[in-house]
Amino acid sequence: MKGNSQKTILVTGGAGYIGSHMCVELLQTGHQVVVLDDLSNSNPKSLQAVERITQKTLTFVEGDIRDTRILTNLFETHNFSAVLHFAGLKAVGESVEHPVQYYDVNVNGTLKLVDAMAAAACKTLVFSSSATVYGIPEQMPISECSPTAAINPYGRSKLMVEEVLRDLYASDPTWRISLLRYFNPVGAHASGEIGEDPHDVPNNLMPFISQVAVGRRDQLNVFGDDYGTPDGTGVRDYIHVVDLAKGHLKALQHLADTPKLAIHNLGTGNGYSVMDAINAFERASGRKIPYQVVERRAGDAATSYADPRKANQELGWQAEYDLERMCADAWRWQSNYPNGFRD
Ligand code: NAD
Ligand code: UD1
After folding, report:
1. Is the N or the C terminus of the chain less surrounded, counting Cβ atoms within 10 Å?
2. 213 in helix, strand or coil?
3. Alpha-helical regions (H) of 105-195
């Protein structure tokens, strides 16, 4: 039997880092939520925490986005008003070692999803793209018009999906598609009950710093201090994950107006160096972050920060939280749960 709510949202990858924060925002704004996640990089405890935070319930289906049978069944059971598509693989180094797996999950998985959506006449989709589609950018800040040039299989899989979705919209302009290019999502929900919980050694800066702060790792490797930046370390646009989730709510509202394919950067527009991030985290945690400077990491840009004006003007969205708050919230989560959801 079809669900009767017009505001039921399918959240693929909803048990993951960004997806779980999205579920909180959706439930708190009166949506019904169905999560499809195979738990390959997450723990179902994240969803229990979402329910504790919101005092609301969601539906969880454990399964793979590439499983047509599960998708068909989901779309027959529920009357989804939109799909927020977070499910995917995201580690750059791993994508170089296992490109076929990355194309299969990220590209083929999205093809299966949009097929099932079309069959059910659910044509509103928000896709988690990434600033990685800009490759090594030449000009700052990065606007949506900046050239795209992915430089690894992960980035290419994101660009391919963007192109597939553009072609889909060109073939059928009744679709409503939002491509959100995230800059560097960090931080955690203010409750300290959900946050980033990498299964393996973190690849990204902030989760590494917070694991050093909590004593799980001895020290941080700073990948190069000879870039042409104010202190020589890499500069990025860190954005609080709750601000990011709120950007999705605004994107959904924007899609509700008229059918369209829209592209937006979600970033703060501010660039912070690795040293800025270390210093901010030390202040937030009251802990020393031991570090050593090592070689640059292959494929890293010196600087990357967004021009967020398009999202501001068209979506009426802008990030609110600063770096201090990102670190304070990340620390609350990390110090509450030093071993993440395995505690
Ligand atoms: P995450 O790994 O925490 O979440 C992804 C979720 O998808 C996980 O819960 C995982 O179990 C699930 N998943 C993976 N493969 C699946 C499959 N085949 N079927 C069903 N579920 C599957 O990652 P995240 O940081 O929350 O990222 C969410 C999305 O945002 C991803 O698409 C990622 O590429 C994109 N993104 C993330 C960042 C970032 O820095 N975190 C930046 C830009 C874009
Ligand atoms: C990385 C990915 C990018 C992806 C993004 C978000 C690479 C080459 N790029 O980007 O495709 O979209 O994550 O998931 O992997 N740093 C350290 N020490 C560390 C980790 C990072 O010094 O242990 C530095 C980096 O050199 C960089 C900054 O910290 O200057 C941020 O790194 P990270 O968090 O990995 O994000 P990106 O490099 O932007």
Report:
1. N
2. helix
3. 109-119, 153-171
Residue 1 pLDDT > 60: no
Partners of 180 in the β-ladder: 128, 264
Residue with CA at minimum distance from ligand 1 atom 1? 16
Question: What is the chain's alpha carbon radius of gyration, rounded to the nearest angstrom?
Answer: 19
pLDDT at 298 over 70: yes
Give yes or no for residue 291 CB within 6 A of ligand 2.
no
Query: Is the distance from CB of 13 to CB of 19 less than 8 angstroms?
Result: yes
Output the pLDDT for position 6. 52
Longest CA pairwise span in the chain (Å) = 61
Instruction: Give residue for tokens 């992915």.
Output: 150
Determine if ligand 1 sits within 6 Å of the CB of residue 40: yes
CA distances from 273 to 206, 292, 306 (A): 12, 15, 14
Is residue 171 predicted with pLDDT exceeding 60? yes
Ligand 2 contacts CB of residue 240 (under 6 A): no
Tokens of 79: 């009357």
Cα of 106 vs centre of ligand 1, distance in Å, is 9
Instruction: Report all structural domains of the chain as residue ranges with CATH numbers, in order of start.
Output: 8-187+239-268+307-319 (3.40.50.720)
Mean per-residue pLDDT, 21-30: 98
Per residue in 128-153, pLDDT tens? 999 999 999 999 999 999 999 999 99
Per DSSP, the three-state class of 264 is strand
Q: In Å, how far from its chain's centre is CA 250?
A: 15
Centroid of chain to Cα 19: 7
Within 8 A by CB and 6+ apart from 269, the residues are 141, 237, 305, 306, 307, 308, 309, 319
How confident is the model at residue 38, as a pLDDT? 98
